[in-house]
Amino acid sequence: MSFGSLLRPWPLVAALAAGLTAAAAPAAPAKTLVYCAAGSPESFDPQRVHSGTGLDVARALYDRLIDTVPGTAELRPGLAESWTVTPDGLTWEFKLRRQVQFHSTPYFTPTRPVDADDVIFTFERMTKADNPAHPLSGSHDDSFEAMGLAGLIRRIERVDDRTVRFVLNRPYAPFLADLAMDFSAILSKDYADTMVKAGTPEKFDRRPIGTGPFVFERYEKDTDLRVRANDGYWRGRPRLDGLVFAIVPDSGGRAARLAAGDCQIATAPDPRSLAELAATPGLAVVSQATLNLRYLAYNTRKPPFDNRLVRQALNRAIDKAALVAALGGRPTATPVPPALWSHDGTIADPPANPEAARALLAETGLTLPVKTDIWAIPARGADPPDLNAAAKLIQADLAAVGFDATVITQDRGAALDLCQDGQHQMCLVDWTADQADPDAFLSPLLSCTADQPGRDNIAKWCNKAFDDLVARARASSDRTERQALYQRAQKIVHDEAPLFLIANGTVSDGISTRLVNYRPGPTGRRDFRDADLTDPVP
Question: Are residue 472 and residue 524 in the same domain, yes or no?
Answer without folding.
Answer: no
